[in-house]
Amino acid sequence: MTELQQGQIPQANPLKKYYRQPKQYIKLPSGYKFYPEGAIQVPESGEIAVYPMTAKDELLFKTPDALLNGEATVTVIQSCVPAIKNAWAMPSIDVDAVLIAIRMATYGEKMSVPVTIPNTKIQRDFELNLQSSLDKLLSAQYQETVYVADMEVTTNPLTYSQFTKMAIKSFEEARLQETIRNQDISEEDKLKRFQQSLTKLTGLNVGMVTETVVSVKVDGQTVTDKAMIAEFIENAEKGFFQTILDHLEKQRDAFALPEMEIETTEAERKEGAPESFKLPIQFDTANFFA
Question: Which residues contact residue 181 at a Cβ distance below 8 angstroms, ignoring those fewer than 6 apart?
Fold first, then answer.
């Protein structure tokens, strides 16, 4: 029987006490700013619970299409961090911290990173301490304001939805450029198509800046209308655009993980390796949760 008989009291699942439990409690780098209403529910403690992944969550990270369009990441974040009701709307500066916390809750604090030693064919695994990486992200602060001449410009980080759309468009344009490069067409046609693609990529950068600018204060007035801001950015001098772009790059770097300093062994140096090298830490979702 799938329906309760009239008057029958539903019984609690005796297995419920064995459901997954929170393994982490964290505060996010954004300090919960930049979230639209209803996108997150923060408890009074200010720390949100992080649960380990289920088998279903783990399978999502093995679906290429869901990874590319961000659907897998959003679904898993909302599954493992129930306080986040709409992960598409979360500020992009919180995403890495949340994913690291989910991985730690699921697999533990240590992560093995495979590396090819520079100038050699030697491969070696290095151990990354995820708690140290998370602490670095949690200590970063997003600077909203930047001054350009007499203007006070307020910016917000991109949402995960905006970031994903920009990344997909950039990926498609890069792939198009590679296709053009390999096509058997005249150099004149290649140049024309490259220029068209470059124009689109430039447009993406302009669009990104427009999305992040919340307001421009000048001459005693504050402009918040998105159409006006977009029109201004389209017609402003290059210096204004570059200053905003530099500011956004600086904020992105603040939330980037520091490179690992790797010391090579004597055997590796005999094969041509340097005494040490720096290893950039980037979390590729496709193998981060493998």
Answer: 190
